Amino acid sequence: MKWRFGLALMAAVLAAVSATAQKVEMVIAGRGRMVFELYPDKAPKTVAKFLKLVDSGFYNGVRFHRVENNPRPFILVTGDPLTKNLPLDDPRIGTGGTGEKLPFEKNDLKFTNGTLGMVRDVRDENSADSQFFICNGDQRFLEGTYTAFGRVVEGLDVIKKIQLGDRIEVMRRLPE
């Protein structure tokens, strides 16, 4: 009888863990690989949409269109589908997405090195779509104004290697 309780408890714990943290791999051409851990318990709508886009192949071939490292490390931005075909100096770069807006999901995640956050219009907190950023260093002033939804758990060194125009070869969900 005790072993049945133990198995049931273990199954419940594993179910809770898989419901709270999911992993996605991103491979950047010529730079390396990162693994993201996502937190659906902190930003459920954001994580659900992000995984839907990952699963559909939406991010494959998208480029990093904003890399802010001067005067100090800040953020790397990707997720605009227009970067697949347009030159990065086209004025439309940074405006693309799916057309499906996400609500702001305020949570207690900290914007530290490797945190993932949703890009949005500064005038509308409910305007996030497909574009996201990766913090290059601590950016605590972003807390409470942008939706944080995950963090880099493998490949933090790759963040410093990414340059403007680098392309995402593939993003895929990793098995739980």
In short:
The protein has 176 residues and is an alpha+beta fold.
What profile does the largest beta sheet have?
Answer: 8 strands, antiparallel
User: What is the helix tally?
Assistant: 3
Strand content: 15-25%
The rounded distance between the terminal residues' Cα atoms is 29 Å
Shape field: globular
CATH classification class: Mainly Beta
Strand order of the largest sheet: 3-4-6-5-7-2-1-8
Q: What is the SS-derived class? A: alpha+beta
Question: Which spans of ≥5 residues are poorly predicted at pLDDT below 50?
Answer: 1-18
Percent helix: 10-25%
SSE order, one letter for each helix or strand: HEEHEEEEEHE
CATH architectural arrangement: Beta Barrel
Compute the number of strand runs: 8
Into how many domains do the coordinates divide? 1
**CATH fold-level assignment:** Cyclophilin
Question: What's the CATH superfamily, by name?
Answer: Cyclophilin-like
What is the residue-averaged pLDDT? 91
Give a quick set of tags describing it:
single chain, eight-stranded antiparallel sheet, 176 residues, alpha+beta
Structural description of this entry:
The structure is a single chain. The chain has 176 residues and is of the alpha+beta class. It has a single domain, classed as Cyclophilin-like (Cyclophilin). Helices cover 20% and strands 23% of the residues. It contains three helices and eight strands; from the N terminus they run αββαβββββαβ. The chain has an eight-stranded antiparallel β-sheet. β3 and β4 form a beta hairpin. The protein is globular and about 35 Å long. The model is unreliable at 1-18 (pLDDT under 50).
